[in-house]
Amino acid sequence: MQFAKIQGKRWLLRFDRGQRIHVRDTKGTAWRIVSGSVRLDREEPNGEHSFANLAIRGDVIGAETLLFGKYGFTATALTACVLESWPEGHDSPVSDSLLRTLAKAERRAAEVIALRCGQAADRVRRLVMILAHSAVEQPTHAAAELQVTLPSRQDMADITALTLETVSRMVSQLRHAGVLAPLHHGRRLSQSNFAVRQTLGDTP
Amino acid sequence: MQFAKIQGKRWLLRFDRGQRIHVRDTKGTAWRIVSGSVRLDREEPNGEHSFANLAIRGDVIGAETLLFGKYGFTATALTACVLESWPEGHDSPVSDSLLRTLAKAERRAAEVIALRCGQAADRVRRLVMILAHSAVEQPTHAAAELQVTLPSRQDMADITALTLETVSRMVSQLRHAGVLAPLHHGRRLSQSNFAVRQTLGDTP
DNA sequence: CGATTCCTTGAGCAACCTCAAAAGCGGTGG
DNA sequence: CCACCGCTTTTGAGGTTGCTCAAGGAATCG
Q: Is the predicted pLDDT of residue B88 greater than 90, yes or no?
């Protein structure tokens, strides 16, 4: 279920984990991600739909609607997330904002492409890192503990091009290695949706 | 070596296979790819540089220079290619061209991401398909034979997240399966740089 | 308390990687 | 023309990582 809020002059939409945000070939507007993370899927030639891209805080999704009037991808919330409509009209030159969006999209694409090579453990660790960076407001360059909501194992598998089982094993391994905090049984948190990261600055 | 031609009012640059087009963090302008294919690389945290994206005919590379004044990626020619400067000044609304470029970049990213999952044989086949589509001028929707210059095995390996050896094996396999033409010994073509595709329309 | 869904863990196997050697191609120079 | 060199590609044999299949645990909801 999605709650629409008007705060100041911005439309804010909230989505829960796993919820569909928009569907390919339907009409709608573009959104900027205020918090949380989103997966984009495309339709394969064979009709299946498969992971196409990842979007996190600051990224714009659905920009193609400004050109074609329809979404080019299906978007689903990987974690609870908040979106605001884009572009914000008040911004001065549209081309500047667009250019910034383009540059960001290319960097994100490079990151996601990189997520799909190397050892399984490393891939999952890198994905967690990206999500962790997206969770923190300002880059506090100190080693800080912060809570990150992980996507479902299936979603993580789709992103890293691994299987659900391998991702699960690697998450366990990261926990054992101290990168992720052990499960909080006492506090009744969802079994594995919450994780605590410890060393944010560097990737050894 | 790069030849600059002025044809009409367009600057056309030509690059050979394997040649560096531009280097990350250096100054320069953006380019649209007129023909051929290009790989973009980014610098890893550890200093290595690794495959970040693929660009083919119609794609724009180096758009971020319009914003930051420097290239965000290093670009190298996968095959002989021709570039023209971008944006072409005469185009009416900049934002329209930019939007089109953004949409294209997102579709390309999705394609490259998809190139990195599934069986090795399929990945290589899909890469060849993409390069073949980029080689043909108009989408002739009939089954047509056309010549495609393949990138080096190492480049294909970097793109598909396989090893050089596996790519070589899969290319041999595709030849045996009739997707790629057998080597032309008679015509003195380079051993494996040229390939002929046969069924362009569909991907069974 | 079922029923459902998601996650975890195990065992065996196959696809792909690693290491290694040989062959093809292009260039240079005798 | 042939020999030689450097580079890329091809092909082979064996090892490992991650996949497949399967069963069991944990949380949520009625």
A: no
Report the DSSP beta bridge partners of residue A53: A40
Q: Does B102 touch chain A (CB under 8 A)?
A: yes
Summarize the confidence of residues A56-63 as an average pLDDT: 97
Q: Which helix (H) or strand (E) element contains residue A95?
A: helix A94-114
Question: Is nucleic acid strand D under 7 Å from B92's C-beta?
Answer: no
Buried b (16+ CB within 10 A) or exposed e, B9-45: eeeebbbebeeebbebeeeeebbbbebbbbbbbbeee
**Helix, strand, coil percent values for chain B (each to nearest 5):** 30, 30, 40
Answer whether any strand D atom is within 7 A of the Cβ of A130.
no
Q: Which residues pair with A77 in a beta bridge?
A: A38
Assess whether pLDDT exceeds 60 at residue B140. Answer: no
More confident position, B91 or A112:
A112
- Shortest Cα distance, chain A CAs vs residue B116, angstroms: 7
pLDDT, tens digit, for every residue of A175-199?
999 888 876 543 333 433 444 444 4
Calculate what percentage of chain B has a pLDDT beyond 70: 78
Any chain B CB within 8 A of the CB of A107?
Answer: yes
Rounded distance between C-alpha atoms, residue B163 and residue B156, angstroms:
9
Domains of chain A (ranges plus CATH)? 3-114 (2.60.120.10), 120-197 (1.10.10.10)
Q: Are A174 and A123 in contact (CB under 8 A)?
A: no
What stretch of H or E contains A125? helix A120-135
Strand D contact residues in chain B (107-136), C-beta within 7 Å: none
